Every structure is written in C-alpha cells, then in structure tokens.
Amino acid sequence: MPSARWPHVLPGAEELCRRAARAALAAAAGGLNARHGLEVSVALADDDTLRTLNRDHRGKDRPTNVLSFAALKGEAQPSGSGGPLFLGDVVLACETVVREAGEQGKAPGDHLCHLVVHGVLHLLGHDHEEPREAEAMEALERRILAGLGVADPYRDEPAERAEAGA
Prior knowledge:
This protein has 7 helices and 3 strands, in the order H-H-H-E-H-E-E-H-H-H. The chain has helices at residues 6-9, 13-28, 31-36, 47-58, 94-104, 108-123, 131-147, and strands at 38-45, 66-70, 85-93. Residues 158-166 have low confidence and may be disordered.
C-alpha cells in the first residue's frame, strides 16, 4: 500500500503527517487523549490504492485524496487494556494530493497537513454531511492548521466544495 513516490514528490511527508495528526488529536480528542493515549495509522499510498479502497468501501470507482477508516464505531468506549486506543487509519493518495495542491495554488505540504487533520477528525467522529457539521469541522480544521502555520485551506474555495473523500 505505501507509495515509493512520496519521498520524491514531498520530502519530509512522514514528519508532516506526524505533526498534523498530533495537532488534530491534541485539539479535538479532549480528555480521551489524556486518559488513554491515542494512536492512528497514516498510510502514504498512491492513486491506485485509494481508487480500490474508494470503490470497495464507498462505491465510488475513482481515486480520492484521503480516506479514513475508524476502528471505533458510534459510541464505542475504549477497553481497559491499558495501552493506547487505536482510532483507525488515514490513507492518502500521492498523485491526487500533489495535483490538488497545484490546482489550488497551495504548497503540497500544507495540503497534506490539511488532509491528515481532516482524516483524523473523521476518526474522532467529526463529519461534514450537513452544513452545520461542515462549518464546525472546518472551523476546527482552520484552528488546528493555524497552529501548524498552515493558511486557511478554505479561504478561496468556491461555493461548491471539492469532495474530500473522507
């Protein structure tokens, strides 16, 4: 699943993902993070992988930028295992992330950070299906990204948002 292209098109992508995931967890996980410790998996994959996952899990036969797969569903509570609580997986498509960054006039690293934050927020139960949910999620994303030194990813976006496949 990992793509060998990431280090060539975006050196430092792994560290950017770590920083973005930690920032999202710190800002949005509340007491859950402090009590249990949280763990997420971030996979730097390619368009072919995301296309397959998108088709198999969402019925959309096309690549997308990011997909999140939550390990906990609904109101599931952590077990008493004592280890970190695994929230799930965030999978990113190299070609789509880089292409979108170029199309949107964003630095690829900034776009990657945004998508990791977006994916981790989905693992924590945030969604954007309804307008009110979308506004709340976007406000949280903006706050987290500002803390990482990343500009508002929605500032120049047209009214019809590009699908963020998470």
